[in-house]
Input
Amino acid sequence: MTSREIRESFLAFFREHGHTIVPSAPVIPHGDPTLLFTNAGMNQFKDVFLGTGKRDYVRAADTQKCIRVSGKHNDLEEVGRDTYHHTFFEMLGNWSFGDYYKKEAIGWAWELLTGRWGLDPGRLYATVFETDDEAFALWKSATDIAPDHILRFGKKDNFWEMGDTGPCGPCSEIHIDLTGDGSGRGLVNRGDPRVMEIWNLVFIQNNRNPAGTLEPLPARHVDTGMGFERVCAVMQGKSSNYDTDVFMPVIDAVAARTGRPYTEEQDRVAMRVIADHVRMLTFAIADGAIPGNEGRGYVLRRILRRAARFGRTLGVKEPFIHDIAPAVVGTMGDVFPEIAAAEQHIRRVIRSEEEGFNATLDRGLEIFSSVLDRAGSSGTFPGDDAFRLYDTYGFPLDLTQLMASERGLTVDTSRFDALMEEQRARARRAEGAASAAGEAPPGAVFAGLPPSAFVGYESLEVEARVTGIIGGKYIALDRTPFYARSGGQVDDTGVIEGDAFAAEVIGIEKDGQKILHEVRLTRGALPAEGGGRVRARVSLTRRLDIQRNHSATHLVHEALRRVLGTHVHQQGSLVAPDRLRFDFPHFARITPEEIRRIEDMVNARIAEGIPVRTEVDLPITEARRIPNVKMFFGDRYGERVRVVFIDERYSVEFCGGTHVKNTGDIGLFKITAESSIASGVRRIEAVTGDGLRQYIEDQVRAAGALDGTIEALMREKEDLERQLGLPAPPRGGLPGGPLVVPQGPPTAEALELVAAAIRRREETAGALTKETAELRKGASRVRVREGSSAVAQLIASGVNVDGMLVVTGEVAAQTMDELKGLADALRARIPSGVGVLAAVIDGRPSLVCVVTDDLIAARGMEAGKIVGAVAAHIGGRGGGRAHLATAGGRDAAKLPDALRSVEGIVRGMPGR
Output
């Protein structure tokens, strides 16, 4: 059977047995901050097992994309070296949520393996938990397995737990004997690839409470997982997963790209590692991951750099990994269409990362080799050097460990860890110093406060009771309309007024449900203690501006995804009253055309006047199933969440921020800047509302500044034309005349008017800059020609020193290029000699020294040494080539002394 047939046969079998076939969850588990990657089929059903969610079905089956590269499932060092460990793999699984249990799970597993797929029962072993007599008996009664092939094992091998607490239960594993002689009984659960686990049946029947004791669950579940690549190897009669049709097309692509056959064992290992790693990168990037320096991003970076280094062992030095991704898409894109849709993005991301690392990889490898020479036979690779490779050359520690192990060395990880901790401590100190400047209240202050109710979604002005006064600058209230910064949205500001005082609210601090208002007193004195009544009022204009920008952020997020690709997701944001900022993964500059399309899409949604609605207190399990909902990895959501809808077909996001009631309230949207803030991360900045009005005013001022630049360039151009004796053309006016913007709210027409005015002025200034640059060159050439007569006079007054003509003098030059031109003319006119010319350029003394070729060859004279010695007299230094060198200084008054020193310096030169 081909791998496609095996996958479909599994799903068809469980479809026949009443299971709903569900799609694979992404390998990026958005909304679950406990996981870097989806590492098992059960991840998407965790809420069901925890009793916090449910599905519309009680039986399910799927093929789940999984990544395991960290934690207890880290088999990275085995990848490519053994036959069955991978960073990315598929897990075929079936589940029962309070429906069938052990009897059916065991019976169906046996039926599929031996009945449908025809595996030899004599080669299969079943393991059960040592006290699970029920499963032991069912294997005997529900299957025809040989009784001595049913084995009991302890907790380590046959008891599954989600975590330290929570759902758990015994499991039953199915292993296959690949020894060929039936001698595998003693190798079960011994880590020997000749007897390999292919299917794990987990029976979730207990809950481990915080005291560590087991309690029965009200509903019992089944969770099974079969290693797809492993069962393909068994079904196709291969001794290695890598020899199946799952991997061979990718390995063939590696062999073709590197020009190396898949024959030598060392090359085979490298090709298997690369094939595995490209699969992992392809699926992770397609689901939204991007290489970076932290968390999941750093895992991708480690894997990619590991693959790049294996490419070096195959003789490939240029970026090549991106060329293998299409082979992965070709073999799996029909089953997982998301990788086909993202193929070009995947290739761009991988290539960009390869190019970045290639710049330092070769130098890092040189450093590694030099350390090996020093390490000798010590058996240890120094931790200091491992840290240097990591910190300076981007070598992940596990890459250095891999390379060291190939040479019989172990890395001193304790020293490496110590240096890493020192670096983290320095970063923490720097962060602490920065945060201290903000004087945020210590956590202990919050400890004695009661919670505050946030009512700012509905009301911007409320009466409240003071529950605490801290340090004369913080007020706590029982209820507050003030939003505390979160999710990129900044604090509200406003006022709090009591009978005896008034205070400006300048910031908000929050710890869970406890809220402090940082205030600046404007009238009276703060009460000594709480209990009094006050009126709290949010600055309306500022809040409205913030709301416009926050709703616009949601609109632009979706527009970016539609224009640039679904890999775009929020990696950081700022929602302020005057602007918004949005950071996202993307590996190319956003073109002007793309910016225009994004702006048009956002402004179209604004013009539609779409109602913005929120649903609050939604169970997170229900909210996650809303079509197209956006969640963000790393955000810790509670059991109930708030969701903001701007047309269910357009933008749906988990969000606790404040928003307009209708997109028409935003007014107009304009992107003001686009930039790169890190490798693979772009940033856009934009404005709406009052920020847009300020943007237009800034552009009007910029146009005025450009008018001043154009006026100055015109005057310089006219002056240069007079110097060169050129006829002066009639002088034109400023392009388009003075910029006048209509009064009133910002409009699209006003934006276009300003943009066109800026564009015309930039074009005019650019053209004038080029024209004046050419005129400057012409004027400079004229001055050099005119200066040649002065050079001739200097040559005539030169001094003979031991058969060498030494020429010195001060000349008129406005640029260093002119001074060098005169020096070149001097050098061309003397058959053998040294010349030093001086000029004051922009108020600073400058020198040029020239030496003829015969003196360089016969006497070793060097212009750089001579000009350096001369420059010391004017408080400067210089250097250059043997035939021409330049210098600058600080004291122009000393130029005559410097020139008088030349003859003595030349006389004192060695070899004269």
Summary: The radius of gyration is 37 Å. Confidence is low (pLDDT under 50) at residues 434-438. The longest strand covers residues 195-208.
